[in-house]
Sequence to fold (947 residues):
Amino acid sequence: MNPSSTHPTFASAAGIALVMVGAWSAPAAWAASIAPRACDDATFLRRAALDLVGRQPSPTEIEAFLADDTPGKRAALVDRLLDDPAWATNWARYFRDVILYRRSDDRAIAMAPAVEEFFKRHLEDRAAWDEIAQDVITATGLPSEHGETAIIIAQMGETADIAAEVARVFTGVQIQCAQCHDHFSDRWKREQFHEFAAFFPRIAIRRGPGEGIDRYEVASFDRDPRAGRGKRPENPRRGDLEHEMPDIDDPSLPGTVMEPRFFLDGGGVPLGTADRKRRAKAAALITADSNEWFARAIVNRIWTELIGDGFYPGIDDLGPDREPRSPEMLASLCRDFVASEHDLRGLFRAIMATPAYQSESRSRADASRLPGEVSCPQRLRADQLFSEVLAALGANEAMLAGRPQPQGRRNQFAGPRPLFNSVFGYDPGLPRDEIEGSIPQALLLMNGPQLARAFDGGRPVSPLGRLLRDHTDDRELADELHLRTLARHATDDEIAVCLSHVRETGDRTDAFEDIFWALVNSAEFIHRR
Amino acid sequence: MRSRREFLRLLPAAGFAAGALPFADLATAHAASLRKRGKACILLWMQGGPSQFETFSPLEGHAHGGGTKAIATAVPGMRFAEPWPRLAEVADRLAVIRSMTSKEGSHPRASYLLHTGYLPNPSARHPTLGSIVASQLAAQAGGEAGDLPPVVRIGGRGRGDSGAGLLGLQWNPFELRDATQSPANTEPAVPAERHRRRLDLMNRLGAGFAEALPREAADHAALYERATQMILSSDMTAFDVEAEPESVREEYGPGGFAAGCLLARRLVENGVPFVEVVSNGWDTHQDNFAKVAELAGQVDRPAAALIRDLDRRGLLDDTLVIWMGEFGRTPKVNPRGGRDHFPRSFNAMLAGGGVAGGAIVGKTDRAGTEVSERPVTVPDLFATFCASLGIDPAFENMASSGRPIKLVDGGEPIRELL
Fold:
């Protein structure tokens, strides 16, 4: 929608860095001792590469970046990575997780590739965030061709669940708590939830012409098929043209018919409005500049993902009854985001130019850390980790697969990446401190037979076998393995540990297998600091 | 350092020299061995929604019965459908609930409901029964855990159903597709000694990271220690059903579900508090009668063997065995000889865990369409599980939104069974 790189508000990254730093004043509470220090170049490079293109930098990229002494090289790097098609792929996978992790129906998993494709295409085409939101809210069609039907398919057409998810993803407001009762801590009333749900009752999932996920098709449903038959369906959730708020004391009684109305600004459409018009109105109300929560939700989301810690404790639990941290920073980013006509690349650029993003990370558990003001380490998302493993091992997906995957109807679960995702994936909507490792994750990295093949230094064609041949100097090889896995040079202490391990082991191949294994299994490898 | 588990293994031999053990150690060992034989739960899950009429609620003398014959059981007056002769023999240890009722007729939603006690809601990630049971029993045991994962799900189709939700990944079901194969990636890639050496190297190389980010490093080290403890544990032999004597394997019979039941017993015996064994294919929209007969052929024998086996080993009183699916099937047989989804009245069965055997709870009308006596809702059923296992159903977990979520939302246990 807009050519971001020349946009006046989100100007060149170098310029924006100054703008942002100028707009931002250090909290008075910062004593010099706890003020964040800027991170070093190698850390910045790995962080930015993982965040933007979903993999660590290669040894060559690292050397080039470290040797570069042009001022503004960090901003130039961010620009370059944002133009890399891998940025679109990486974030398309992220938004796939945002929606599909909340599926109430597992069949929706089969549309994962289509959801990825939808977001990838839009991100590559520099679509603005409001354009993406409108497509998702007004989606119809076959799931495999229309990834934008993701929320509807993930909730299998359930009116109330679609409403809840649209509100969560695009306004960051968790209004569905008000579905059954007035919200326990926020202002939302039960009526408001059901008025909002009333935008979505005419979405129908009907039998599609295809197989797999295309056995379903999202359509508009504006004529009552039972008209004249005079009988309520056995399943009251289906077939109503208007949304009813159920009677809370006796759900078997007819509910109250609700008129579509948006809880954040009161706008709506009359009863009887056709599905397309109804949902177009919902999309317009949600993405309107007058709805500040549209910008706040995505700004808080991307900030949380990039900084590791959000303006709000929940990535999508915002709203007028929550106090943001660093409200000036949030307001400034939102203002610029709206002025840029919802340019996502610009938003990334602006956040990555802030002192918070440029800082050395502090543990989430560090009490002296001012929440939201300093970078926090994050566990890599499954897709990032998988790409990182591939790069570290010098392997490609087919190598890890071992043998061709059988073609079958459950094929979407097959293949190393989906397998990795099923073990390492997590719901991006989770509070960051709830994201923990699991035993199957440790087991996969420790013992996975495919990885074990790549660690095998005894085979001359294995990645490690080749490195052992190419680097005859142990010190050099230890350093090379650090570069490939952790994307930084080894420290003197680490070199010393490696050399003594080689000596004690007595067998060079065994020793370096152990070192490679230890690096891929390290806490540093699975975190982005 | 010698692990508690190793210590326990030495216990029988050390028992002869009990006088030599300090009292405190003896007491700890005793408590731990009690825990090892503490409460447990095995869920036999019939994915797809099993027909109540062709299982434990036959409808004799009505067209809706579909002509399914009923057979006598070990309990006078308690009749099962014909394909279940072995469970009929142990009916004195079974409680059949014939008046289950719910409103949810879609597979994923009903499956979630019967696994968690709640309907799906994007704002709250309700924990599955296994995670509830395991976390609650672990808390009662002072947080001490064995070497094996606390929740194991056998034969599920991956990613499905529900996980630990808000309880955290630690309580996620450990998924095992096939009981006859050892779980993925548990075979150490290198000998134990070298594995330990690698872990040590990992920790030494991680010193710099640990200095900068101590909490992240400590969590990581603890996780690797737990995973290592598991794969190097001699308890891992529990996963090897082939180690079972031929006579026992014969009793459980052939097939994946049978292997799953046998594995469930072996795991429970080794201190795993919750095991779910899944039988797939109960969604009998067509050809209901032949299909159920075939499925019953896979489930009847091992389920009966499991109950006898637990009983023989003195584990049945403390182990609740549950048989259920997500809903029942329509009383009216459809034109394709099938039965469709029917949540309004269905059945479930319990055994062990202090539940009265030889009992029938509730009934439906003659046509099998409405519960006519003693309706049991899903929360009632979950409250009953809690009562059997000594868990407080009103215990509240905190959702990430800050909203407290009770283990069971309302519901009254079926007191006549307890």
